């Protein structure tokens, strides 16, 4: 994901929205699947929410780590001769997308749990 | 002069970092197998009692309610009480006693790393391709390659068992009874004027600090050498020498400060590795710090202690990186822009 051309705000929002919807859809499928496989609604809800939170937490860390130390890491690569295509801007964008998937998963779990608990 | 706006901006960045760590730790602990209520109640407790404990801890609430409650408590530095390690004691209180132990070791390790790493790197750059450069490069590469769990026992074997120069474990000789002020034992003994105890504490601290500082020293020296070599080749350095300024003065006056910038970054990033290394070092040297606390808490499933300790590690790491940023802007004021 090279950042030669900066994406517009609209493009960014659309990208994040798509990732959010993807996370929510995955959770909405995963919760009933776990329940149908014999687990309790509480167990399914807890595990899927935790997976979403894991992805969300990881991406926030990655995002803020990129902001905090991105420039340092770029320098570090340059000075130790291990130059790669990694850049702070690309890392931030990737982490924002990943975080949206995680957040979508968390929100999707809450909604799916309400629906599944209502049905069962 | 460092602007307040810059510092506030960097301080605000601490919020997402800590939020991310808190979320990450919460998720991992909820994905891990094991029931905290069962841990507290004991393996032989009745199901009814386990359910009672679950209700008391709020574990029957939906997970998003638990997540929200955890975040609100964590903001107030309330990580709850220990389940197992020190049953019923607030995690905050446990950390207050354990944290200075690890901090002392990590700071001394970092100090040794900087103290030796910078001059070695500088020497390597000034005398490039000389014998001293080759020796220090080999030394640095060895330092980066040697893991703590190997260098620790090896140093104990050599300096504690064979030569008997330094003690193998503990923080101070048992004959000294130290009343803690800060918890940093070398500082406390100095403040109280107990120099015999200070000497004992320093001797105990030396081997763990060396073990933890070797990697840091190796990395700093490599970075210093590479950065200095780059600066030496800059036009302004050539100009300074062409104007008749002595080579040593040029290097120290114009080159050193500019070459320090990437080195300072490494020192900041390295602090996280030092804290991670503290877990192994404390285990090897039998030091009861935050590292051994974390290992024990994971082993017995003491979730509040794990959460509190990891968040404390994250907080320290981000704080050190904030200091690095401030140092950056001091070394090169353009960075604030």
From TrEMBL, chain A:
Full protein name: Uncharacterized protein
Keyword terms, alphabetized: Membrane, Transmembrane, Transmembrane helix
Transmembrane as UniProt keyword: yes
Pfam families named in the record: DUF7268 (PF23930)
Source organism: Halorussus limi
Transmembrane portions of the chain: 19-36, 48-73, 94-117
InterPro entries, A to Z: DUF7268
TrEMBL record, chain B:
Annotated compartments: Cell membrane
Keywords per UniProt: Cell membrane, Membrane, Transmembrane, Transmembrane helix, Transport
Top-level taxonomic group: Archaea
Transmembrane regions: 12-32, 105-126, 138-163, 201-220, 284-303, 310-331
GO annotation, cellular component aspect: plasma membrane
UniProt main location, coarse: membrane
Bilayer topology: Multi-pass membrane protein
InterPro entries named among the record's database cross-references: BPD_transp_1_N, MetI-like, MetI-like_sf
Residue ranges occupied by any ABC transmembrane type-1 domain in the UniProt entry: 99-328
Biological process annotations from GO: transmembrane transport
Family of this protein: Belongs to the binding-protein-dependent transport system permease family.
Name under which the protein is recorded: ABC transporter permease
Organism: Halorussus limi
């Amino acid at each position: 994901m090279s950042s030669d051309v900066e994406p517009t705000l609209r493009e960014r929002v659309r990208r994040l929205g798509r990732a959010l919807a993807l996370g929510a859809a995955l959770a909405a499928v995963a919760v009933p699947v776990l329940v149908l496989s014999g687990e309790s609604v509480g167990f399914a809800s807890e595990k899927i929410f935790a997976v979403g939170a894991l992805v969300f937490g990881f991406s926030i860390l990655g995002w803020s780590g990129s902001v905090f130390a991105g420039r340092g890491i770029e320098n570090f690569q340059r000075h130790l001769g291990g130059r790669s295509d990694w850049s702070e801007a690309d890392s931030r964008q990737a982490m924002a997308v990943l975080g949206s998937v995680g957040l979508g998963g968390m929100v999707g779990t809450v909604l799916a749990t309400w629906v599944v608990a209502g049905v069962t | 002069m460092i602007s307040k706006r810059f510092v506030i901006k960097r301080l605000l960045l601490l919020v997402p970092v800590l939020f991310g760590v808190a979320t990450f730790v919460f998720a991992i602990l909820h994905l891990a197998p094991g029931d905290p209520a069962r841990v507290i109640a004991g393996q032989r407790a009745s199901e009814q009692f386990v359910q009672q404990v679950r209700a008391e801890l709020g574990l029957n609430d939906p997970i998003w309610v638990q997540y929200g409650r955890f975040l609100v408590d964590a903001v107030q530095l309330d990580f709850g009480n220990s389940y197992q390690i020190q049953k019923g004691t607030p995690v905050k209180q446990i950390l207050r006693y354990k944290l200075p132990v690890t901090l002392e070791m990590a700071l001394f390790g970092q100090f040794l790393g900087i103290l030796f790493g910078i001059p070695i790197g500088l020497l390597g750059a000034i005398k490039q391709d000389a014998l001293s450069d080759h020796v220090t490069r080999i030394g640095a590469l060895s330092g980066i390659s040697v893991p703590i769990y190997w260098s620790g026992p090896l140093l104990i074997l050599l300096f504690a068992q064979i030569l008997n120069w330094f003690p193998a474990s503990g923080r101070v000789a048992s004959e000294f009874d130290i009343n803690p002020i800060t918890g940093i034992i070398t500082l406390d003994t100095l403040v109280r004027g107990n120099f015999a105890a200070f000497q004992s504490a320093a001797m105990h601290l030396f081997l763990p600090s060396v073990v933890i500082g070797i990697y840091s020293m190796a990395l700093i020296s490599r970075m210093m050498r590479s950065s200095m070599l780059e600066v030496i080749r800059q036009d302004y350095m050539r100009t300074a020498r062409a104007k008749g300024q002595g080579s040593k003065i040029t290097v120290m006056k114009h080159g050193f400060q500019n070459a320090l910038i990437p080195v300072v970054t490494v020192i900041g990033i390295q602090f996280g590795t030092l804290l991670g290394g503290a877990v192994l070092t404390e285990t090897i040297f039998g030091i009861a710090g935050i590292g051994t606390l974390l290992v024990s808490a994971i082993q017995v499933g003491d979730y509040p202690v794990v959460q509190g300790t990891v968040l404390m590690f994250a907080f320290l790491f981000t704080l050190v990186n904030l200091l690095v940023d401030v140092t950056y802007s001091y070394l090169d004021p353009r960075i604030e822009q």
